[in-house]
Automatic annotation (TrEMBL):
Gene3D superfamilies: 2.170.220.10, HUPs, Isoleucyl-tRNA Synthetase, Domain 1. InterPro entries: Cys-tRNA-synt_Ia_DALR, Met-tRNA_synth, Met-tRNA_synth_2, Methionyl/Leucyl_tRNA_Synth, MetRS_core, Rossmann-like_a/b/a_fold, tRNAsynth_Ia_anticodon-bd. This is Probable methionine--tRNA ligase, mitochondrial. One of its GO terms (cellular component) is mitochondrion. Belongs to the class-I aminoacyl-tRNA synthetase family. Keywords: Aminoacyl-tRNA synthetase, ATP-binding, Ligase, Nucleotide-binding, Protein biosynthesis.
Length: 645
């Protein structure tokens, strides 16, 4: 996206000439009543509605660059990426935005402490998040930095419209502010959520936020305010009209309770005398725009706001966002401040917020001081990105996003061994890559195409349960994914794979292959073999298509090995018999093995991994008698549901 031009920004500033505050009548003034009623409409369709024909747009939070990436950052990226890829799998044009938040007091103080320019600190740390996105196979279309010029221009335009195009009682105003401010959280806290505490290192009495346990300081300063309290009823009406706006619903209940009981007008600038590292008010150079106002606008910057469009009356492109993916610690900013700011400018609201929980280790919040922080880069090196992506999103069960999730190398290894290796990996290896060329997936598909055998019709058929699973899996996966229930989608897919493995053990295709080898003229045995191989291979193909959003690299390897064409890997092809052109005979597999990206005859989908040691999160190995040994959780079958505490 191109940045807005300077003349465009200047022309926006000229709005003062025709839309000064003095020109706005009070909301109770009859002369303005009709216009005000239109502006203040709480119709939910006008707030978050948008044409269904627009592309799908999903965002991650932009990550603060005062520290290195952790597993929570990776999780947000992966969740957003999975849902973008899911939309693309269905044939929907989709976009993903991620990036870094680079302004504010924490950055300013960190740069001062490191004795480096703030921009240099941001450049170095932003690169780490960009590298993480690349390492994690994140298919982002935009990587925004709040220090980008196009974003600064967008913030400037948004800010000036708040000043000059909103009815007086609902627009920003200047006043004195005093209260408890938290540098770590970049926000003020009401008196009733502040309490006294003792700093362990010094024994000094301090004041902290009861919500985050971070220290707060008493501040008194002149700033600009956004009249958040004026939007109270409109916010409540919107929540009531859109009860599923936040997943899980429990977060919406928390947000609604906060709006009802704790809402205060929001200080939206900081004095330049205290905060220099940020975007200045274009008209008041004594004030720096509040970092959260700055940060939230990023979602619109990459949707073209300020460069391609300026009001909701224009073509807003991919805006509004179809989904914001955020952590539970920042839900208030996204579910209260952000919609109120958008309401002020009569902009469409995001359609959905997915609020995910945090990751813990041994039931404890990850902390550098405790030493239980998982380095995502090391975890990727240890497990490979696709197995790690799978592990992370298998926890996304719609009803339990509210519960913190447990990260453990032992659980990770158990999932790798018992689900990826023993299930899909085992089925793929046995059917698509048998040790000897006993059958051909291509011949099986060709036999189906040529009508050499019939599909299952009788319930007593050994393949009947698998036939049913193949029919019910795709629609069940679609329902789960559209409901943001990645864990349920995975459960459905792996139920199909388990049924396929059960059928393989029951039918024993290798015995049928031996019969065919002994008696090549036995057409009945050949048809029975091809029929079984067709069903088993279809199970692999359909599962591979459906798992692409979660494990794109591994599923590309799987589908390539099956000979599935690139243009036959969409959701519409995840139907029994929908693709009759794939499959490779064993001779071709061996021949192609030397030149293909994934060497077919030898490489397995999920190769063995060395043992682990939870004392070294992410990348560690447990040695026993000089050898790397497995330390697998044996009782994974007894575990039910997502990995939560």
């Amino acid at each position: 996206m191109r940045a807005a031009s300077l003349p465009a920004l200047r022309s926006l500033r000229c709005l003062r000439a025709s839309t000064r505050r003095s020109s706005w009548h009070h909301l109770r003034c009859p002369a303005r009543s009709e216009a005000v009623r239109h502006w203040y409409s709480s119709d939910s369709t006008s707030e978050s509605g948008s044409s269904n024909s627009k592309p799908y747009y999903v965002t991650t939070p932009i990550f603060y660059v005062n520290a290195a990436p952790h597993i929570g950052h990776l999780y947000s990226m992966v969740v957003a990426d999975v849902f973008k890829r899911w939309q693309q799998l269905k044939g929907v044009e989709a976009y993903l935005c991620t990036g870094t938040d680079e302004h504010g007091m924490k950055i300013q103080r960190a740069a001062e402490k490191a004795e480096v320019p703030a921009k240099q600190l941001c450049d170095e740390n932003s690169a780490k998040f960009r590298d993480l996105a690349q390492a994690a196979s994140i298919d982002n279309d935009f990587f925004i930095r709040t220090t980008d010029e196009d974003h600064k221009a967008a913030v400037g335009q948004f800010w000036l419209r708040l000043k000059h195009t909103v009815p007086e009682d609902f627009g920003i105003y200047k006043g004195k502010h005093q209260g408890w401010y938290c540098v770590s959280d970049e926000c003020f806290y009401p008196e009733d959520v502040v309490q006294a505490s003792i700093e362990p290192q010094t024994g000094k009495k301090i004041m902290i936020s009861s919500e985050t346990q971070n220290q707060v300081e008493w501040m008194e300063e002149e700033t600009w305010f956004f009249p958040l309290t004026k939007y109270k009823q409109r916010l409540l009406d919107f929540y009531d009209a859109n009860p599923d706006w936040i997943t899980p619903r429990s977060r919406l209940h928390e947000v609604r309770n906060w709006v009802e009981n704790n809402l205060e007008d929001l200080s939206v600038t900081r004095p330049v005398s205290r905060l220099t590292w940020g975007i200045r008010d274009p008209e008041d150079h004594t004030q720096t725009i509040y970092v959260w106002v700055d940060a939230l606008i990023n979602y619109m910057t990459k949707a073209g706001y300020g460069s391609k469009w300026h009001t909701s009356k224009e073509d807003t492109g991919i805006w509004p966002a179809d989904m914001h993916v955020v952590g539970k610690d920042i839900i208030r900013f996204h579910a209260i401040y952000w919609p109120a700011l958008l309401m002020a400018l009569d902009m469409p609201l995001p359609k959905k917020i997915l609020c995910h929980p945090h990751w813990t280790m041994s039931g404890r919040k990850m902390s550098k001081s405790i030493g239980n922080v998982v380095d995502p880069i090391l975890a990727i090196e240890r497990w490979g990105i696709d197995p790690l992506r799978y592990f992370l999103v298998r926890n996304g069960r719609s009803g339990t996003y509210a519960k913190d999730m447990e990260y453990s190398n032992q659980l990770m290894e158990a999932v790798y061994a018992k689900e990826l290796q023993a299930n899909i990996g085992n089925l793929f290896q046995r059917i698509a890559r048998p040790k000897k060329a006993k059958w051909s997936t291509y011949e099986a598909c060709r036999a189906y195409r040529d009508g050499k055998f019939e599909l299952v019709t009788a319930s007593e058929d050994d393949l009947a349960p698998l036939h049913k699973a193949l029919s019910t899996t795709p629609p069940a996966v679609q329902t789960a994914m559209d409901e943001l229930n990645t864990a349920e989608a995975i459960d459905v897919i792996f139920t199909l794979l388990k049924e396929a493995n059960r059928a393989v053990a029951l039918i024993k295709p290798w015995e049928l292959a031996n019969t065919c080898a002994t008696d090549p003229s036995n057409e009945s045995a050949r048809a029975e073999l091809n029929r079984a191989i067709f069903y088993f291979t279809e199970s692999i193909r359909i599962a591979g298509i459906l798992l692409q959003p979660i494990m794109p690299g591994k599923m590309d390897q799987l589908l390539e090995s099956l000979g599935v064409a690139k243009d036959r890997r969409a959701f519409q092809h995840a139907v029994l018999g929908a693709d009759d052109s794939y499959g490779l005979d064993q001779a071709t597999l061996v021949e192609r093995g030397a030149t293909r990206k994934h060497p077919v005859p030898t490489e397995t989908l999920f190769p063995p991994k060395a043992g682990i040691d939870d004392d070294q999160p992410g990348f560690s190995r447990k040695k026993s008698q000089g050898n790397l040994m497995y330390n697998t959780v044996k009782n994974l079958d007894a575990w039910e549901g997502p990995l939560e505490k």
